[in-house]
Amino acid sequence: CITVGVLALQGAFSEHVQLLRAAAANTSSAPTFRFMEVRTPEQLQQCDGLIIPGGESTTMSLVAARSNILGPLREFVKVKRRPTWGTCAGLILLAESANRTKKGGQDLIGGLDVRVNRNHFGRQTESFQANLHLPFLESTKETSKNDPYRCVFIRAPVVEKILPSNKALGIQEGENERADTVVAPSKTPVDELAKQELEREVEIMATLSTNAEPLQENQKHAHAGAEDIIAVRQGNVFGCSFHPELTDDARIHVWWLGEVVKAVERRQQFELAHRTK
Ligand code: GLN
């Protein structure tokens, strides 16, 4: 049984749990999944993978700090290298760097060597939807795989810069410090696997101009064709600017659960190989 958690401190966590359930029902050769809302380090400990939902990232990180789960979250993502997916505010928290807003900085979890620009498209009233063909979904076996995905952007961040992937980056003016790095207590076999994950580079998974065909009139939006990066992956960490949890389309959840299964299998094989040596 694979346990997938959704960080439930603030934001659209119950929507994610619902879509995970729908996705699991869609996954044919399903291992059994257990989904749980995560509010404590003890609950996080039980998880093989984690989703950090959309919401308000400053609030979420304040609540996380107060719940003493910020450190365990960094360990989960950056030391154990467990599959973690952040949507919108979740993407911000998983970035190593985020620009400041009027309200000031925030503690990040980190894991993605990118800098995000919060509220890139402006205020709430500038929220928009875009029907995009997301290339990574083409690998799922869903029958509706060719339909565009309705991406909902609400005060959304974008990835404005890919950072050199090691922690030696200097801090520039107007930038938050990179999220604290937890030093891995390496040496054990599982940590070797985590180290491999650590060496992976940032992959751009989608930009706003990601489209297999020209936009229809009813799909047009002010930002159509922009090159803004709206989804990235680096090893175990995946983040997107938009809110799949605010649609009833479970295709990204299906794809991501597949990635979680692969990661769990990799870990099991690795542990087995080292045990039988
Ligand atoms: N702009 C929000 C933030 O900075 C994120 C918005 C969202 O998750 N819809 O946290």
Automatic annotation (TrEMBL):
<dbReference type="GO" id="GO:0004359">
    <property type="term" value="F:glutaminase activity"/>
</dbReference>
<keyword id="KW-0456">Lyase</keyword>
<dbReference type="InterPro" id="IPR021196">
    <property type="entry name" value="PdxT/SNO_CS"/>
</dbReference>
<keyword id="KW-0378">Hydrolase</keyword>
<dbReference type="InterPro" id="IPR029062">
    <property type="entry name" value="Class_I_gatase-like"/>
</dbReference>
<dbReference type="InterPro" id="IPR002161">
    <property type="entry name" value="PdxT/SNO"/>
</dbReference>
<keyword id="KW-0808">Transferase</keyword>
<keyword id="KW-0315">Glutamine amidotransferase</keyword>
<dbReference type="Pfam" id="PF01174">
    <property type="entry name" value="SNO"/>
</dbReference>
<dbReference type="GO" id="GO:1903600">
    <property type="term" value="C:glutaminase complex"/>
</dbReference>
<dbReference type="GO" id="GO:0005829">
    <property type="term" value="C:cytosol"/>
</dbReference>
<protein>
    <recommendedName>
        <fullName>glutaminase</fullName>
        <ecNumber>3.5.1.2</ecNumber>
    </recommendedName>
</protein>
<dbReference type="GO" id="GO:0008614">
    <property type="term" value="P:pyridoxine metabolic process"/>
</dbReference>
<dbReference type="GO" id="GO:0016740">
    <property type="term" value="F:transferase activity"/>
</dbReference>
<dbReference type="GO" id="GO:0042823">
    <property type="term" value="P:pyridoxal phosphate biosynthetic process"/>
</dbReference>
<comment type="similarity">
    <text>Belongs to the glutaminase PdxT/SNO family.</text>
</comment>
<dbReference type="GO" id="GO:0016829">
    <property type="term" value="F:lyase activity"/>
</dbReference>
